[in-house]
Amino acid sequence: MTITQEPVAVSIDTILLATDFSGASEKAASYAKAIARRFGSTLEMVHVVDPSAVAICDEVAGCIPPPSNVSSKDADQGRMQASFVEAGVVTKSFTTEGHDPAQTLLQIAHQHHADLIVAGTQSKTGVERLFLGSTAEKLIRTAEFPVLTIGPSAAWPAEGPLEFRCIVYATDFSTQSAKAARYALAFATQHGARLCCCYVENTEAEVPAMRANSTADFTEALQSMMPESGPDAYRPEFFVEHGDPAEGILTLAHRVGADLIVLGPRKASFWLKYVNRGLTPSVLAEAKCPVLTIS
Fold it and tell me: pLDDT tens digits, the chain, 295 residues: what are they?
């Protein structure tokens, strides 16, 4: 699969921040604010309350329902919005109900022509994960535009406009990952960032995305996905790792000090034992930086 186009500039005019006012949402909000300052974006903060989750949680021991105290929620929303305004970010906020929060968020994103969805996620187990974690996971599976997910291990961003210095782009040579390549290229070019392109050869996979005889074959395939020419400052590097794909990507990201990982997630990766297996969920759970997914 070859990409011969020049990388397109990324324009992010509208950011949709999905929030439930949890700690994970606070961190995601910090990234959304930093990106909005970098691109001059309008930031739309959306809180979707799922009435059915509250009802079922009442019947499950140990389940922590979503925030339902109106005054507390309003205070959190006002505080978060005030921090955006103080940073000079044009901000709008919405609160609505929906039995399928992810679908509701996607409808709002389409209606408001969002260019990017930002969401936080937490490492949860049992019923609480089913309610809180599934929203970000469904966004990644079904969104037609980029989703920036801030996992539980991601560091907090520095104050000021967000600048990416090192980007890891991981591919399995699928259609989705080829589409993601253009975003990785564009961000790297616009930010003057180091771009590390990688493929992880998983010899234990039942259906490998690609078979080749040597590291050189994979490197050549990676190079074929890059534009034939580009700015002098744009010099992508190519890495071939071996073993578990998630571990390979995370190890490389740690080694090069990545502050962004770009993936084109395969939808099938979410279906084995919910999210306990699969490349994208594993990377989201352990990444020390945000993960940008393009479906």
Answer: 344 445 556 789 999 999 888 778 899 999 999 999 999 999 999 988 877 655 444 444 445 454 445 556 667 777 888 889 888 999 998 888 877 888 899 999 999 999 999 998 875 543 333 333 567 778 888 888 899 999 889 999 988 889 999 999 998 887 778 788 888 888 888 888 999 998 888 766 544 444 444 567 767 777 776 665 455 545 788 898 888 888 899 999 999 999 999 998 766 565 333 334 467 777 888 899 999 998 7
Class of 14-150 per CATH?
alpha beta
Matching fold, domains 14-150 and 166-293? yes
pTM as predicted: 0.81
What is the fold, at CATH topology level, of the domain defined by 166-293? Rossmann fold (3.40.50)
Q: How far apart are CA 190 and CA 175, in angstroms?
A: 24
Q: Where are the domains of the chain?
A: 14-150, 166-293
Which residue in 276, 226, 277, 17 sits closest to 126, CA to CA?
276
Close Cβ partners of 159 (under 8 Å, ≥ 6 residues apart)? 34
Euclidean distance between CA atoms 172 and 175, whole angstroms: 9
